[in-house]
Amino acid sequence: xxKGANRIRYSTIGHRxxxxxxMAFVAVSLYLLWFLLQWSARVVxxxxxxxxxxxxxxxxxxxxxxxxVFLCAGIWGLMPNRPRQAATAPGIEHRRIPQAQxxxxxxxxxxxxxxxxxxxxxDTIEVQPISGNGPxxxxxxxxxxxxxxxxxxxxxxxYGAAATQKTQQLIDGVGGRVFxxxxxxxxxxxxxxxxxxxxxxxNGLLMxxxxxxxxxxxxxxxFPPDVKYVDRFLVAEREARKxxxxxxxxxxxxxxxxxxxxxxxxxxxxxxxx
Length: 274
Hints:
Number of helices: 7
Strand order of the largest sheet: 1-2-3-6-5
Strand content: 15-25%
């Protein structure tokens, strides 16, 4: 999965079929060569006259039939097989996995592999480098903003819990293994790492930042100089708004506070206490 996205892995069945086809062609070619040499030898022994023995006449149709069978088998074996797409990660339906866009998808050699220790909220996770050659700790998924659920000075926002669950779902789909891409800044003013997070699904690299925006779990929130993918994020947000996805349908707008209402049971209990 170096460069490009939505890559398709081809099954080795097609390669094995091609090998069988080549072997069949070689076999039928050797058989026909042996048959022609035998026929030529008999013609020569017959003094230049066509060898017309009864035994050969009886065996000729059978040999021709066998040659045709080998030939058909070889042609069938050399026919290209239709490639099969690799299965998606277990536990997530394929139709619910946003596909990587294949634009400016970085090669893995430029990324840092890490393990997600925990999901804090929709746009914040805790990571630890797998190889030990990278920073660890709290990481802010840059370029996007999900509704708040744990901000000390802001109320819990509509669709915040859903965004956290979506981030957890997508990360669980790759077993917690991610690849991190740095833009310009190393950390924000709170000491959190600033990274783009790439998820290595079998069908290609998926950028978590963009996926959250595209599915309506986040809005675009870029801060210079970390603006490498801002154009992609803006397109994703426009599509989410136009398609009335996620919070744009459930909340009407970003940042709407969650209003907690008392349930009938809670009201009854409070009345009984009076």
